[in-house]
Design a protein that fits this description.
The chain is of the alpha+beta class. It contains 12 helices and 16 strands. It has a 5-stranded antiparallel beta sheet, sandwiched between helices. Helix 9 runs parallel beside helix 10.
Amino acid sequence: MRLVTKLTLAFLVITVPIIGVGGYLLVDNAQTAFEERFEQRISGIEQGVQQRLEQVAAELERALDHIADDPIIRRELLEPLGRGRFYEGGDGEIDYERAIVRDARRLMTSAVLDTLRIVDLERKGHVIALGHRSGLEETDPELRELIERHSESAFFRHERIENDATGGTDAVWTLQVAHVIGGGPGLEKVRVALVGGRIVDRRLVDDLRVVAGIGTAVVLDDVAGRRVAATFDGAEPPAVEGGYASQRRALRNPTSPEPVANLRVYVPKTELVAGRRALLTMAAALAGSAVGVALLMGFLVARRMSKPLEALAQAAAEVAVGRRDRQVPVPRGGDEVAQLTRAFNQMTLELARSEEELRQSERVAAWREIARRIAHEIKNPLSPIQMSIEMLKKVWDRKHPEFEKIFHESTATILEEVDRMKRIVSEFSDFARMPAPRPLPTDLGELVTQVVTLLREAAPGVAVEVYADEALVASVDPDQIRQAVMNLVKNACEAVQADRASGAAAREPGRVEVRVEHDDPERGQVRIVVTDNGPGMTAETRQKLFTPYYTTKSSGTGLGLAIVRRIVEEHDGQIQVDSEPGVGTRFVVRMPIGSAR
């Protein structure tokens, strides 16, 4: 993976968690804000409902106060109760035709009152009269307990109200308030409760709806958990997107710890869901923008950082393949990349200088070695020449009768050694100043056949055979390829002759085989294979075979195979040798058909 990609991904990896945390915090803040508003809304609704119920209770209290001050109550109820004449014997039949029963409906003069009940608290909650419907009720201990518990607060109670349209009664919920009267001079044992109530009808529900606000559902239960009123029909509020957040609160009278009712409030989460969706959309847009900006900034920063590093990497690759003086432009600034570039440039300068010094040293050493080898090779023929001349001089001075014979032998030796020196100088010249190939379309099969024909006569006792594919024409330098093939075939013939002359391999006749054939038709390659059944070579000899001046022959210069290798490489080819002691040797030359430089 490239450095630009790594740095860009690093920017992205750093940015994405930040965006994720930011989005989470936004959504969490929205949730927290909703919860805070929910609590405020619940508190506001609770306060509004509480105030509304207190307002209704206060109105009922004022109406009952007005009734308590009515003379009818004192004249026809309290005073008879005080004299003990309201009941016959206390528990029997009614002593009087109860005027209070007849007048109870008349006492409900306030529009606030929907129900009115007069209860004798001294007789365990005996209901003396009803103002909201005809008839009487039996003693109601539960009502007495409610009156005692809520003497200073309102309470909810299920009532039955006459329905003039049907002639029957309807069950309704009422909010009731108890007002206790009695006592005073002559009435010490009298305690009567006026219990007035207001029907929890659509008006109160509408009041609750106004207090709750649009979309909010409210349920009012009595202390026993029975539903008194609700702003919706059915068991649950109508379904909305996201559902509801609900909470239950107990409503209490400020002057009493006893709960008046239970309030359930349902606040829709539609606003929260919409807000959360908007936040997520905004966060996604911001995330996409941030990712895009991060990728762009990461790419630009990474590109700026990696560009000099890529230049350094490319320069290092060029230095590795031989361009030691490669210099890289130093980026602006004094950061580590600039310092690294300066150090690289200094290193390449030092490396080029050191390499040039080494090259000069190698040249000097190489020429010294060449001079030593040439001197050694030329010194060897000089000794026989010197000895032959000295011999001729002595024979001449002595007027030896066989001077003519000795003269011919000595001159033959001198000519032979001079020819040897010429060969040494010629091979050295070929190796040192070999010209560049001049490629021409050449029939390799014909060229190799001509070389073998010339060498076959100079190698008696060795069968030299040629096998060539037809019409194998390549663009090569014919003179150089001829010289290379001649060196390979000549070496093979000499190796076979030396092996047969030593008597080490009398198993079969000496044989050299030369093949010219296509190597890889798709790539357009040709190969020349020279195989012999000579003595073969060891692995150590094969490793040094193409080293200049290395030879295993007493009369060789060690330049022949070095010249062959150079010719093959100048033609963009390769040379390979396979050999096994006692079996033979095979040289394989591979070249492109049209690749000579």
